[in-house]
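Session log. Operator J.P. requested a structure for one protein chain; no other inputs attached. Running the standard single-chain path with token output.
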Amino acid sequence: METARHMTASLRSWVPWWVAVPVVLLVGVGGCALVQPRPLDVPPGHRVVLGRVDLFGFVGREGVLEIVKEDGTFSHGLVAGPGAREFAIVLPPGRYRIVGLRATNYPRTFPPGGPVWNLDLSFEVVSDPAVYIGTLRVTSGFGEDLEVVVADESEDTIRVLSAWYPNLPRPIARALAVPR
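Structure written below.
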């Protein structure tokens, strides 16, 4: 804490206020631009899959969920972690499995590539323009097995994603992911 205060004081003495103010404003405006609504690109024949991932007690700050179409024709890596809780991804219709979770920002005690936990959840991308598959709550302690719970928090998730993507397709079906 003492070091941080000392560094801040040192920076203040080196950077005049008339330089610092425009820089702070520029960073603030740039940061706001990153969270502005943006259109969702949905290729023909694809559907929007909505949900949320909450990681609790996870060994890394973030991870990648490995999503595979059951016939093996399509796969997707979904990044989850701080700032990446809600998701809207685009997949072709069909049955999917969430087969694994790989830690991507993990302590140095793990080998390169990070630990991988096997998951066995399935969901279906239906004919509706969009489908909500639930909130995946992944809980783990260091080195322990994962516990995955699927909760229905569709109202909150859809409200957040509607603000991000003004063209979010409707209707949105509910097809919660289930253990296989």
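Operator note: DSSP finds three helices and ten strands in the chain.
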